[in-house]
Design goal:
- The chain has 272 residues and is α+β, with helices and mostly antiparallel strands.
- It folds into two domains: 64 residues, Arc Repressor Mutant, subunit A (Orthogonal Bundle); 155 residues, 3-Layer(aba) Sandwich (Chorismate lyase).
- 27% of the residues lie in helices and 28% in strands.
- The strands form three sheets. It has a six-stranded antiparallel β-sheet with strand order 4-5-6-9-8-7. The chain has a two-stranded antiparallel ribbon with strand order 1-2. The protein has a two-stranded parallel ribbon with strand order 3-10.
- Helix 2 crosses helix 4 and helix 3 crosses helix 4.
- The longest helix is centred in the first third of the chain and has 14 residues.
- The protein is elongated.
- The relative contact order is 0.12.
- About 6% of the residues have low confidence.
Length: 272
């Protein structure tokens, strides 16, 4: 037998090699990682919202119900809900539950907005809780803002504005008694401080400043939100004939509210 014939005989006895399995481009043969447990909860809730099964305002299953449904730890469910809040998909109200979020309402920065009218225009229930209506000594910063002497008398009101019983704005207002001496004589259950001032004190200048802030413990409790969640702080000042009238700080949970304006290229506001 020749050498060539001997090699052919050996090759014939070897098992045939199987062709390599095709590998999808870009995977290098690796399997896709399984979706994290908290992501599964998020995907479930997001799908329910997107397909219309859970419309805006719909109450989500409780944490306990989601724990039982997915067979996972409460902290995992909590992470999923917390991230959905950060994404603006749901709203959590302490002691009440979690709800599918409405599209964030937007308030204009080009005029003094009436939050009660804005909420009612959306077809929602509006309620205001008055937390303070008092005469106090002006702190140094308030005195500077209202052109008063530190310790001089100033009017102070605090209001909590709610939409469908969900806190939307915490309003902290200081008013110059020299300009509006009858301010605290009003029945604020009939007319809000803002409405009263707009109707009775002609103003010729408005200043709006918006900051991103974290709430204090007291503010977070009143707004039914976590202290780690951001807020939008709108600070407004008004003047009449160069004299400061009021300085108000309006605190909004950023997950529930936004601030913006639309205007023409000539600088004039565009409404409607």
């Amino acid at each position: 037998m020749t050498a060539a014939s001997h090699r052919k005989a050996i090759d014939a006895r070897k098992p045939a090699r199987k062709p390599a399995a095709a590998v999808p481009h870009g995977t290098a043969g690796a399997t896709q990682p399984a979706m994290a447990l908290y992501e599964q909860v998020k995907a479930f809730i997001t799908h329910k919202i997107q397909d219309g099964s859970w419309p805006a305002g719909h109450r989500l299953p409780s944490e306990s119900e989601l724990v039982a449904r997915f067979g996972i730890a409460r902290m995992t469910v909590n992470r999923a809900l917390r991230e959905l809040v950060e994404q603006g998909r749901i709203v959590r109200v302490a002691g009440v539950g979690s709800f599918v979020a409405e599209d964030k309402p937007q308030s204009t920065l080009l005029q003094i907005a009436n939050i009660a009218s804005e909420i009612r225009a959306r077809g929602h229930d509006y309620r205001c809780e008055f937390l303070a209506a008092e005469r106090i000594a002006a702190s140094p910063d308030v005195a500077v803002w209202l052109d008063l002497r530190p310790g001089e008398s100033v009017f102070h009101t605090v209001c909590l504005h709610l939409e469908n019983e969900i806190p939307m704005q915490l309003e902290d207002r200081h008013v110059n008694p020299r300009v509006v001496p009858a301010f605290l004589d009003q029945d604020f259950s009939l007319v809000s401080p803002s409405e009263y001032l707009v109707r009775n004190v002609p103003f010729d200048q408005i200043e709006h400043v918006v900051d991103a802030v974290l709430p204090t413990a007291d503010q977070a409790e009143r707004l039914a939100m976590a202290m780690a969640d951001p807020c939008l702080l709108l600070t407004r000042r008004t003047w009449t004939r160069t004299v400061p009238v009021t300085m108000v700080r309006c605190l909004h949970p950023a997950s529930r509210y936004r601030l913006g304006s639309r205007f023409r290229a000539d600088g004039n506001p565009s409404f409607g």
